[in-house]
Amino acid sequence: MKTICLYFEIHQPIHLKRYRFFDIGTDHYYYDDYENERIISELFERSYRPALQTMLDMIAENDKAFKVAFSISGVSLELIEQYAPEMLDLLGRLAASGCVEFLAEPYSHGLSSLGNTENFIAETKRQAKKIKQLFGQNPKVFRNSSLIYNDEIGATVADMGFKGVMVEGAKHILGWKSPHYIYSCAEDSRLSLILRDYKLSDDIGLRFNDASWSEYPLMADKWLGWVAGLPEGENVVGIMMELAALGYYQPLSSHILDFLRALPKLAKDMGIQFATPSEVLAKNKPVSPLEVIYPVSWNDEERDTSSMLGNGMQREAFNKLYDENIVGRILASRDRRIQQDWDRLQATENFRFMTTKNNGMGNYRGIYDSEYDAFTNYMNILGDFLKRVKDMFPDSVESDELNSLYTQIANMGEELNVKDNEISRLRARLKKLGSPEEEAPAPKEEPKAEPKPKKAEPKPKETKPAAKKEEPKKAKPVAKKPAAKKAAPKAAPKAKPVAKKPVAKKPVAKKAKK
Amino acid sequence: MKVLMFGWEFPPKIYGGLAVASYGITKGLSLQGDVETTFCMPKPTGQEEGFLKIINMSQVPVVWRDVWYDNIKDRFIGHTAEDYYRFRDHLYADFNYLQGLDDMGCIGFAGGYPGNLHEEINNFSIIAGVLARSEDFNIIHAHDWLTYPAGVHAKMVSGKPLCIHVHATDFDRSRGKVNPTVYSIEKNGMDHADCIMCVSELTRQTVINQYHQDPRKCVAMHNAVYPLSEEIRSIVPNKKKGEKVVTYLGRITMQKGPEYFLEAAKRVLERSRNIRFCFAGSGDMMSAMIELAASYGIADRCHFPGFQRGKQVYECYKNSDVFVMPSVSEPFGIAPLEAMQCGCPSIISKQSGCGEILKNVIKVDYWDINAMADAIYSICQYDALHDYLAEEGMKEVDQITWEKVGLRIRECYNQLIGRGWFDNQEYLNAVRNI
Fold it and tell me: What interface predicted TM-score (ipTM) does this complex get?
């Protein structure tokens, strides 16, 4: 049975403001708030809201036969939280329907997979955590920014525990192979690859409203006919695009949402089903390993990283950004503003704006006139940012030294964690021994006390989420707990975490100052 | 195909960009093999290259004088004594009233841009009448406003199509406050022309809007550059380590915007002192600029080496890290192309015509001194940007050749000769692949 694995990327560039070199050292705010608000609200009105609403309707109409996956970069989630909070509600409803899977991706939507593995792992985990907080799902499938992938990245992703990864079905990696099978990573067979069929994806995302295209106008039955006409055994069709393609790149007036809406019913008649990436991976086993030596992405005709790292300017910016000393210092720092700026400066569009490639479609450069303008502005901002990072720790401190200090702190944190658990366990035992009459609540407390400190621990360690993020975080667990565990005594769980948090925080904070 | 071309300057005697452009255009045409160019100029030196026929307007008779062949045959620079007698057979009116006739019945020219320029322009056009009657040609091509009257006269006499080449307009030179005499000469020339070649789209728009010409007969004909000679390529740059040089090269006058360059320099120097600013050139605003630099306290970092000629120009480019052309209004501006040939990244104003055909340069508005300062600073600061612009710029500018310009001009000639009128849209379709 043919299966369509539909996946949408939700990411919007965070526009940097005009930043002259004489601002370096005096102005530490880098963003064009007006442009950011304008773009995200416009996108939400024209694309995200109608598209997500349509998908909700489709799930209801088709008796949950319509499945879809999303990945949202952390930086875009921050923007959405700030400027289009209604969207979180829509996404939450989609998540609750059970037909939607959220994927993990690097928090910054950046190039850390190519620049710094340590940072790559850290920010992917951060992203997964944020998805868990907001939508209650633990991402099991990974997709990289711009679908960048090679064997090394695959191995790293597999080590993080992901089951699958989305990869561009580029001709130069597939050769004679078909993108309609599941493959496995050449370096780690635990990881399966779902390939994007760029022809069928671009038919919708790129050409749908192109009147000069020979297949225009595209109808749902025609498109599904192409899927159904694939050779026997080619069962998985990865359709991946930006969500903004629905309604923004392809305007609503092109009836792209009607096209989408017509898909599930027609697909059912033709014997085609929809599935989320995890479902696809559960049903289909990899047919063979797929070797990808050089990174591929879904950008441009070449489908490589040349639109992001193709010229000397881009590589210069990239090398400055992922300088080992710098990344070490940032990962070590607990400064939220540094963290947030770091996330936003990593985003791929900063590099894409500097491209000098002629891709035949015209380059979108945001607020910039030209690639040189983009480079100059970015480097000025980066200059200021790097200066701030260096100012946090004296230059004389070697990064190795810094690293060892920080591993020491991290180890101490872990030690404390272990000790905390020990204490709570002993306390519980003490209680048990001391008051045998109160046996009933004690066993309930025991399992709860152990996971709690674990959750409290990573927070002070990373301290990444901005103040705004914490609001929903706190609101959700509070709202959910009583619903999930009604039987639990209310007084006991509330008292515990409150008492524990300061215990966990204090020693860590002291060490950081040293 | 025979072209009668009127020009005021031609190498080796160079007064400004006009000589270089005239040379490039005639050379580009001559490479096609079947174009014969007769170039008429006021006062050749005799050292012009031999790929085209030069007519010395100072030695074309306008009144009949009985002179012996043996007496005069060695006196000619440019054309020959045989040509002289042929011209003498085509006198068309009595110009004995004219002042300054010599023994051969010719009017002398001082050459260059003397005080009695308008008189010389008029004399030039009188002589053009003689040439138009005696020479055989298919088309007339007149360079810059000084030769428009001659071109118009030749057209009146011969009925052949007239093509005029606008290298600059008085609107560029005067920031809008035009000299009415110059304007009327320019306007008259354009009104009579069958095809107006402008050195950029910017100039084309000026011609259309300020001189009220039909857009269909105006065409943007961008200039090009000649590959560097071995002598120039072998110049070894003399750069000091840890110090950057930013160069402005051109006349120091209002049209070229030197004050914006100085303002940008001030902003850059506030942040970084290891950059030097070089104002190469002379002009009416030079002393004002020196005073301004002194009053900003950056005189130690600003250098005024004066007018540069010949090889010095290229030495200047080679020793620079950034070339800036902040022109307020520049019809084309060949300097950035030359700088790029020498591997020097360029920053040009958006009001410069050459920006229309250049991609690997940084373009800023001439008044946006912050952007200009930012661009200067980042080229000096980030080697990646400098190297990229230097490398790609050199590649790009190597593709801009006079040969291609010659082919485009040829397309215009073909249209004019073939059916007598010119259409810009058809031209654009025809030259798409050149």
Answer: 0.82
